[in-house]
Amino acid sequence: MNIPVSSELLDGCVLALLADKDYYGYTITQQVQQTITISESTLYPVLRRLKKDGALETYDEPFKGRNRRYYRITPLGTQRLGEIRHDWEDYKHNIEWLLKKEGEI
User: Fold this and answer.
1) pTM, two decimal places
2) What is the pLDDT of residues 50-68, one digit of tens each?
3) Does residue 88 sit within a domain?
């Protein structure tokens, strides 16, 4: 089933990944794609927006003669992740309630 993913939920997925360790853009894309259907071209604007909003910061590391841009969650990003997780729990609970109604409506 292909359920559209809101930008809020996508932000949460990226921030949750980066809460554990820093990743470069391609790896973030690969990790997210293991869970939800999303194109690479969708994720890079999300990373840029989160950086612009102060939720992420970047740094470059050399790799085989090139630089890889790594993303790191900031304290503001950690706070935002907490808010998204809270909102997700409420949303998930409400959707589960609706889906379990089985003709009660």
Assistant:
1) 0.86
2) 999 999 999 999 999 999 9
3) yes
